[in-house]
Every structure is written in structure tokens, then in C-alpha cells.
Design brief:
Blueprint: H1 3-24, E1 36-37, E2 43-44, H2 46-62, E3 67-70, E4 74-76, E5 82-90, H3 92-96, E6 103-110, E7 113-121, E8 126-131, E9 136-140, E10 146-147, E11 160-162, H4 167-171, H5 175-184, E12 187-189, H6 193-201, E13 207-210, H7 215-218, H8 221-227, E14 231-233, E15 246-249, H9 254-261
Parallel strand pairs: 3-5, 11-12, 11-13
Antiparallel strand pairs: 1-2, 3-4, 5-6, 6-7, 7-8, 8-9, 9-10, 13-15, 14-15
Helix pairs in contact: 1-2, 6-8
Length: about 270
């Protein structure tokens, strides 16, 4: 894997995350789409599908030998060693409610480790991207990207914790864990999904925690959080994107969070 291999894919990831995200704006805050429910009860719209189709088509044009995994259209095999991991709309519940805290996520992995992440928030015209060793870079509108850094707070009592839905803690039998965490931090909010990880990477909050998530929810944000100086792990502290759970933090408070989550790592009482 050469530097040019990574740079070429990073440039594509940056571009197509924005392009695919802007496709969703055709439908955002309109009544021009139907909301379907997938087998797991999560919502699906034409915006999710059109956005992912665009991502896949652009990847296939430039890197036809790369594998692709996407939330809506499954897996396309490849033999290059690179795998693209796509979530066309992370935060579809926000999207269908007209709330701009949703994002388009594009990740690239090699040997099951994410090396590139690009996330764009169409309703906010804001984004962030990173590659291994290249730092994390945030941008708003047409402004020049600036280096993203996590906060330097080191006491839980000073930290803000965000998550996507409190109910997911209940679904995996971790409701008491959530209650105990909330008692220790400054305050907690549900500014979650991928937006929560953006907040961590840009130093606006310190902790984003997901009790349940898929690989396409994690791949893009792992390099972003780490390149911003933070930590991204499963609930046991392992640096992985396929655990079905995640913690993103500023790194300084990560050990304290693991004290709460480690006993439940990988254990789902109900899903």
C-alpha cells in the first residue's frame, strides 16, 4: 500500500461524501419521499438509496477492483485489498424528521482496519475527513479545512457525553451503565449518530457512545477520531470497527469510560 494509493482514495472519499450528501437535500425537509421500514425496524428512504448508488458508481469508475460494503445494497467483492464501507445517511430518523444532524459516511479499510474516513453533513454544510498519519480536517461551507483536535478535558465531571438513543442501552441490557455514566459526567445529550463523533473530533464534546451499531456506522469515524487525537474502541477497549458497539472519546477520559462498559463488552441481552 503506497502513499499514492491512500491519497487517491482519500481525495475520492472527500468528493463523493459531499456529492452523495447533497443528493439527500433534494428530499430533506420535503414531503417528496416515502419512509419504508427495514427488517430491523429502521427507516429507509429513496434518499438513502440514491445517495448510496452514487457512491458506488463513483468508486467503481475510479477503483473497480476495490470491495464495497454498504448499508443499503450489501457487498461487492474486490481483489485490491481495499474495502469501501458506506453509510449514505447515518441518522435517517433525523433526516425524515427534518433535523440536520445526519451525515453521509465514507470509510476505507485495509486488513479490517479503517485507514480513511470522510463524513459530510448536508443540512449543515459541514464535514470532516482524515487518513492515517494525515491528521483530521474539518470544514464548513466553502471555507478552507482546519485541523480538528479533541478537547483536553480529563475529568468526567467536566465532560459532555452524547449518544444516539437512550433506548439502545436498554436493548442491550446496559440501562444501568448509562445511568451511572450520566451521574458522573457534566451532562448528556442525544446529539448522536455520526454527528456525535464529529462533536468529539472537533473538541465540542468529550464522549460519544453507541451500545449498538454496524460496521458502516463505525468505519469512517475511527480514523477521524484517532487522527484528531482521540480514541475509538469497542466497549472492552479494543480498536476495532466490527464489534457492534463503540466509544469515541478525547482519549484522556477513555479509561474512565471503560470502567463502566468493560463488564458488558460484547454482551447483548436483547437486540
Amino acid at each position: 500500500m503506497s502513499d499514492s494509493d491512500v491519497l487517491g482514495r482519500l481525495e475520492l472519499a472527500k468528493r463523493i461524501a459531499v456529492e452523495a450528501g447533497k443528493i439527500t437535500l433534494k428530499y430533506f425537509q420535503t414531503d417528496d419521499f416515502e419512509v419504508q421500514r427495514k427488517g430491523d425496524g429502521s427507516p429507509l428512504t429513496i434518499a438513502d438509496q440514491e445517495s448510496e448508488r452514487h457512491l458506488r458508481a463513483e468508486i467503481a469508475k475510479q477503483f473497480p477492483s476495490d470491495a464495497i460494503v454498504g448499508e443499503e445494497f450489501g457487498t461487492t467483492d474486490g481483489d485490491s485489498g481495499f474495502q469501501w464501507i458506506l453509510d449514505p445517511i447515518d441518522g435517517t430518523k433525523s433526516f425524515i424528521s427534518g433535523v440536520p444532524l445526519y451525515g453521509t459516511m465514507v470509510g476505507v479499510s485495509v486488513d479490517e482496519r479503517a485507514i480513511i474516513g470522510s463524513c459530510y453533513f448536508p443540512g449543515l454544510d459541514e464535514g470532516i475527513f482524515a487518513s492515517r498519519g494525515g491528521g483530521a480536517w474539518a470544514f464548513k461551507r466553502d471555507e478552507k479545512p482546519t485541523q480538528a483536535n479533541v478537547s483536553t478535558k480529563c475529568n468526567l465531571s467536566d465532560c459532555v457525553l452524547v449518544t444516539s438513543e437512550v433506548e439502545t442501552f436498554n436493548e442491550r441490557g446496559a440501562d444501568e451503565t448509562y445511568k451511572r455514566l450520566v451521574e458522573r459526567v457534566y451532562f448528556a445529550r442525544t446529539w448522536g449518530d455520526v454527528y456525535g463523533y464529529l462533536l468529539v473530533a472537533t473538541g465540542r464534546v468529550e464522549i460519544m457512545i453507541d451500545p449498538i451499531l454496524n460496521i458502516w456506522d463505525a468505519a469512517a469515524v475511527q480514523p477521524i477520531i484517532e487522527e484528531a487525537g482521540g480514541k475509538f474502541t469497542d466497549w472492552s477497549g479494543k480498536e476495532r470497527i466490527d464489534a457492534g458497539e463503540a466509544i469515541g472519546s478525547n482519549g484522556l477520559v477513555h479509561p474512565a469510560i471503560l470502567d463502566f462498559t468493560r463488564e458488558l463488552a460484547g454482551k447483548f441481552e436483547a437486540v
